[in-house]
Amino acid sequence: MLFDMVLASKEDILIVEDSPAISMLLKNYFEKLGYTNIHACNTGHSAIIVFKELVDEMKNPIVFLDFMLPDMDAHSILTQILEIQPNARVVLETATEKDDEGIKELIRLGVYQYIEKPIRFENLKSIMNTIENEQSFFEKDSDKTGSNIQEKNSSKIIEHLDFLLKSSSQISIGLMEQVLGVSSEFFSSYLEKLEKDGKIISLGDKKEIACNRCDSVKITQIFYCPSCKGSNFKLGKLLEHYDCGNISEEKTYENDLCPNCGKEIKALGVDYRVLQNHYICNDCKDFFPDLSTDYLCLKCENKFKLEDARWKISKSFKVLNIS
Ligand SMILES: [Zn+2]
Ligand SMILES: [Zn+2]
Ligand SMILES: [Zn+2]
Hints:
With about 325 residues, this protein is α/β, with parallel strands linked by helices.
């Protein structure tokens, strides 16, 4: 029994990173922290396969995801991961702050935590500590239906609330209650203190999306290709050759030759143009400036459209600085 517990003590880690140097650095860090089951993938495609295999083995690996991968956009990878495992824990590696719009969108999509590049050992260590603490926080209460919530150690609740706030730019009381599994009376005085200290700002009552089946507000957006409904896409640059009307990825114009008509493209704006920031579907090869979106309930896994959503009102906060 004790032996089993020792074996189960460290979880699997999946590194999704196209730079071998960073991947190796992360692996070394994790080994120093005592992790032994470390998997590394350099493409989104291989990462989805490995993630699925691990989940099939009843594991829930902690995923370290590079924001920029050559074959798939981070939105695409996250959508696919959440569809496999709604309780996935994903740490996004990024060179930008959480205030960046792209990062905010990913945090809404279910990114669990983010780490800034260049990665520092101290930051990584604190993220892993939080994840481990959180795990034990939830394990204690899981499956004990009807257990007295007051038994939940209140300092643990606050610790986890801090973590939740750190990963959010804006959050409602309804979502805090849902994630922490306790009523707001257990942390309302702490929120008041944070507000007084200028660490959070009340935004008043806000409407937020709730699941139309189970009423949960633990909802995330998922994205897919408008043509084939797949979630395997990347963000890229397209070129349109005016002469023949061909539109395809920049890299298909090898040696500046149009892949459709074989003629050379010569002057930007004269015989061809660039379409920046288009999503390109890896499955059906279609491209589009915007993705289609649905909502996924992380509690009951129900998928629904915006027009079918239920709405709930609860007090929300803007998070400024939780240290
Ligand atoms: Zn639901
Ligand atoms: Zn498609
Ligand atoms: Zn052409």
